[in-house]
Amino acid sequence: MSFLCTISDERVIERPVLLVPPADTHKYARGSAMVFSGPALHTGASRLTAQAALAVGAGLVTLVGERDALHEHAAHVTAIMLREEDAHLAIVDERVRAAAIGPGAGVSSHTRDTVMHLLKKGVPLLLDADALTSFENCPAKLFEHLHDQIVLTPHEGEFARLFPAIDLADRRTAARLAAEVSGAVVLLKGPETVVAAPDGRLAVNRHASPWLATAGSGDVLTGLVCGTLAQGHTAFEAACIACWLHGDIGVQGGPGLTADHMVGLIPLVLAECLSEGKG
User: The dihedral of CA 256, 258, 264, 267: what is its sign?
Assistant: First the structure.
């Protein structure tokens, strides 16, 4: 593991501690992550996710998508690998420690099918944005395949579409019920982000900033969770750690913050979490 997750007795997420990797580490030891791209002309969101996953510490990140989409990515990324998607996702092998799908993916049957294929692979998985809304009319189909190493990251609109019977008036109770119903870890985004696990654990993040209310900010959060998952953290821990880091990006960035610049702030945020103790 790369971080120590710290949560107060009041269930408030505190600054995580970043551990220095051992001297003999290598990229696969630090974790391989896959991020599934949207189609051509809709690639920016998944690219932000992949860049954040790499910056937070995953040793290797691959963007997966259609060839036309990969041509767009190739004009923007260098350290991130590109792989063409295959029908049965044979590219998701035993080296892949985490995957993410949703940002820019499109609300479609193709997105639903890809999610179902990924769930069958058993890899720790983050579902966000279009990967959630694609199941709006059949949430039970999704829930029957979820488990406690899956993270769902809805904002309130996506939450209402996926959990229409759960009242959002009390967000902590809503997140806890959603985790219980779905069987997954639920990260309910908002000014006070709530993270709930299906076993009843709950934590809130209050370390944030209104400057995070900008297009693409949630895609960066998705990457932070995915990259932390890839480093061996449980889904609940990864969600808590990523929430705090994301909030600190907002604090550090301040006015004028855009998602394009958020990834560049990740090293600064990590440096302030650094412990000289070996992980």
Answer: positive
